[in-house]
Amino acid sequence: MENTALLDKGGIIFMGIYLASLILVGLAGRFARKEDTMADFFLSGRNMGLFVLFLTLYATQYSGNTMIGFAGKSYRQGYHFLVSVTFMIAVIGAILIYAPKLFKLSRKFNYITVGDFIQHRFNSRILTIIITIISIIALGNYILSNLKAIGYIVVTATGGKVTFTQGIIVLSIIMIVYETLGGMRSVAWTDVIQGIMLLVGCVFIFGLIEYHYGGLTTAAKTLIKDHPKIWSPPTWEQKRFWFSSIIMFFFGISIYPHAIQRIYAARDERTLKRSLQIMVFMPIVTTFFMILVGIVGLTRFPGLDKQGSEKIAMLLLTDIAKHIPGVKIFLVIFLSATVAAIMSTVDSALLAISSLFTQDLYRRIRPNVSQHHLTTTGKIFSWALMGTMAYLATILPQTIWKLIEIKLEILCQAAPAIFLGVHIKSLRSSPVLYGLAAGLSVTLFLMWAGDMGLNIPAKPWGIHAGVLGLALNFGVIGAFSLRKK
């Protein structure tokens, strides 16, 4: 099965033309540039309307992690993983808690990065630097997991004619070129195309699986017979894991630096709120559909290991194309949209890292350089970073879901500074810094304890290290704040 190409020669040519056309979008973004400034390059001139803002949020949030990682996780966990739909809805609820107020502040004080808010709100260079570094590490991990997803898809789509490494390198070059040309404007415009195709593709693949495999009803009957344990009630450890995961998603994904950039880039507060209100419903037609892919995949291709389960979406697509040749053109479009959506997530993260490095680190060292110099520095850093991430994606063995967990466990430690900083005017920098240091210390210790030879699980009592660290983080902030009063 793995040697059977999902795309024939015509399909590969179509995808190639489609992906190459993204460079033209990059050129269009370059010509549409109004000024050579950080705000124009990284925030599209702060003028995103409802249609573009919603689709760029959608295409960025749902990518390789959803199409590959979520499907693989549901293959391994079965119906229990349906709870992840709640995780993704919770993310939008979390953003709505702080986004409107943060947007107003960004317009008043011209923020470009999350570091701008932290520095202005707390006036602490060390706190700003630590949160900036956390954000860069988390986004680098994000890029890494999505590049691995691209590699899996390309190998399956071409039947191995294009290798895992070759696929990552070629698509990385396309991404970095159009991102460098047009910045946020090009990224957002490509997201519009990719978001529409992805949404249509998800609905289509859901209908196709229902038609060809019988959907959840048939899958349930097979699982009752062949995998009866999958129907057992969740254990208390599993319930604790779910609770832990929803907290990690709530505080981690909601403060993605590239999502915060889109908050800054909205045309006005009303546009921002409407985009987020629509986003609340998207897990139902995206996350849920990919969970179905994993569950049906378990009935069709049982016995896959962790690495093999990461490819379950592509295995099902290959199987469907083999039995129903007439749908190949639609699968080509869906596959192209999936790859492109992954690319939109990667370039968004890359753009955010570039702005974080340039605005919050490099500019602190050279405060008097021009806007042109800063944007050029950001572009050079993007090229170096993309090369590094592409290399790491080809050699690291972790599953995509594991990479998601590592990223969120670290990133959520920055959440108190944002959630509390936006709403509590009396909060000072020292409690936030102490809480961040305590939370990070516990998180990293628990994550690495096993590697140090200690008999301490990475998820004590089924709870993520990052969630335990976050609880201590909030606790320290509260204790020091009350002490000062």
Within CATH, the superfamily of the largest domain carries the name: Sodium/glucose cotransporter
Decide which structural class fits the backbone. Answer: mainly alpha
Identify low-pLDDT runs.
none
Total helical elements: 22
At CATH level 3, the topology of the largest domain is Sodium/glucose cotransporter
N-to-C SSE string, H for helix and E for strand: HHHHHHHHHHHHHHHHHHHHHH
What would you report as the Rg, rounded to the nearest angstrom?
22 Å
Multimeric status of the protein: single chain
- For the record, the CATH class of the largest domain is Mainly Alpha
Largest sheet: none
Number of domains: 2
Number of strands: 0
Q: What level of helicity do the residues show?
A: over 70%
Which architecture of the largest domain per CATH? Up-down Bundle
Distance between the termini: 66 Å
Strand content: under 5%
Descriptive report:
The protein has 485 residues and is mainly alpha-helical. It folds into two domains: 9-413, Sodium/glucose cotransporter, CATH 1.20.1730.10; 424-485, no CATH class. It has 22 helices and no strands. The protein has helices at residues 9-31, 38-43, 50-61, 64-77, 84-109, 114-122, 125-158, 164-213, 215-226, 236-252, 257-265, 269-279, 282-285, 287-300, 306-309, 312-323, 328-365, 371-395, 400-411, 415-423, 429-448, 465-484. The longest helix is centred in the middle third of the chain and has 50 residues, at 164-213. The radius of gyration is 22 Å and the shape is globular.
